[in-house]
Structures are given as structure tokens and as C-alpha cells.
Amino acid sequence: MTQTHRIPITDAEIGTDTEPPTVAAVHHRAESDDWLVFCHGLRSDKSGSYEQRCRRAVEAGYNAVRFDCRGCGESDGAFVASTLETRLTDLHHVVDYFDPDSFVLFGSSFGGKVAFHAAAADDRVTAVATRAPVTTAGTFDEYRAAVERDGEWTFDTGDRIDRRFFDALDRHPFDDVVSTLSVPVAIFHGGDDAVVDPADSFDAARRLESDVCLERFAGEGHRFSRAGERRLLDRLFGWLEWADR
Q: Band of the pLDDT at 245, cuts 50, 70, 90?
């Protein structure tokens, strides 16, 4: 059973609007007290592979939640205003809306960075799993150079980022996660990823002081093949049987 919710972001700046912006979230219900919340990537949304991941989570006994950050998918807001900090705020409101006693976070790409920083600040998180997580600001050096030169960067989809994106990114270095995070971590990364360097995940795994499971998926890029996605889910839920029980 699934149900879509509109969750107000009550502490967002609303400007001339009379109502706070909302984010769209889908709850895949399971008859348990276990929860798994999914965070999508920079220019992604809650559709596509996240629906399959949520169905698999329910099969494993988890209430699963996927949602669109502001500026993405079916949520309110402009993409250009969507920073790491706004995404952390959105995630916080989504979790508080469903109010689980504890939960696991899964984040993909930039959503992995969101998941890491959220977990480091929320005692309710029992484990963090990521796929090709962003763990260094260097991932965006090309975009930063363009923003410093031109004031903004426009993707081929028309979505834009500006200095707000990098200002927020710089306020949240991965060092903050390293010094704080204590729950088990899983990192899955495609060996042929040309977007987020797999070496970054190996470096992050070395630096983290919690238990870390790191798997390199040979032949997979930043987007996994269908076979790679099936392997990812098998590995994820096999690991969670140990990490979250």
C-alpha cells in the first residue's frame, strides 16, 4: 500500500506567498516499526529506481519513504534555490512528519552527502547506506569554476545552480561527518563511475571511524544497469540484516 503526502516546510522563507512550500513524499507501508528513508541525487527525484527500491524495502519489512526535495519532481520551489542545507531541512521535515522512533537512511550521489550529514546530526538514524556518495566538494569543481566566472551554471535540462549552492556546500565539509558519525555505513560505488570518483568512497571509508562496508561494482557507472541495481539491492538488504537489527 502506498500513499502520497504533501509535507509543509514550515520554517522555509516564503516571501510573498501566504503558505509554506510543500514537498511530495510517498510512503510505502509495511506492518512493522522499521523505517527506511531514501534521498535522491542532485538532479534526480523520487521516481524511477526509487519506487523499486521502496517495494524491495517493504518486502524486507521496512516502511519506506521516498520524497522530492524542493525544486525537484513534484515538490514546490525552484531548483536554483535547492542547496545542501535546504535538502537537509526537507529531509528533517519528512522524517518528523512520519515520526519514526528510529530509521535507516539511503542516499544516492548528492543524496548520499545529504544522508551522511543528516545521520551525523540525528540520533534516530541507526544506519546509513549510500550509492556513489558525494564526499568531497571537488566533485563539483567544474561547476564552481563556471559559477565563479559567470555567476551561475546551467545544466542541459535548464536547471541552474549559483553561489548559494557552493556557500552551503562549503559550510558542511565531510570532516563534520567523520568526527561525529558513529552508526554502521555501507558504500556501494560503480567502478567505472565518471561523475563521482570511486576513489573518493575509498578515502571516505578509510576516514570514517564507524563500521564500514564498501563494495566496488565492476563495470557499473554512475547510473547502475538493471543487473547492477538488482545486485545493489541484494547487497543492501543483506547488509541491513546485520546492521539494523
A: confident
Q: What is the pLDDT of residues 198-238, one digit of tens each?
A: 999 999 999 999 999 999 999 999 999 999 999 999 999 99
Distance CA 154, CA 162 (A): 9
**Domain ranges, ordered by start, for the chain:** 2-137+174-244
pLDDT of residue 16: 56
Residue whose C-alpha cell reads 563494495 in the numeric block = 215
The percent of the chain in helix, strand and coil, each rounded to the nearest 5, is 40, 20, 40
d(CA 1, CA 28): 6
Question: Is residue 112's pLDDT more than 70?
Answer: yes
Residue 211: strand, helix, or coil: coil
At residue 163, what are phi and psi to the nearest 5 degrees?
A: -60, -25
H helices of 122-171, where? 141-150, 163-170
- What confidence tens digit (pLDDT) does each residue in 45-85 have? 999 999 999 999 999 999 999 999 999 999 999 999 999 99
Residues found in the chain: 245
151: left (phi over 0), alpha (psi -120 to 50) or beta: left
**Chosen CATH of 2-137+174-244 out of 3.90.1150.10, 3.30.70.270, 3.40.630.30, 3.40.50.1820:** 3.40.50.1820
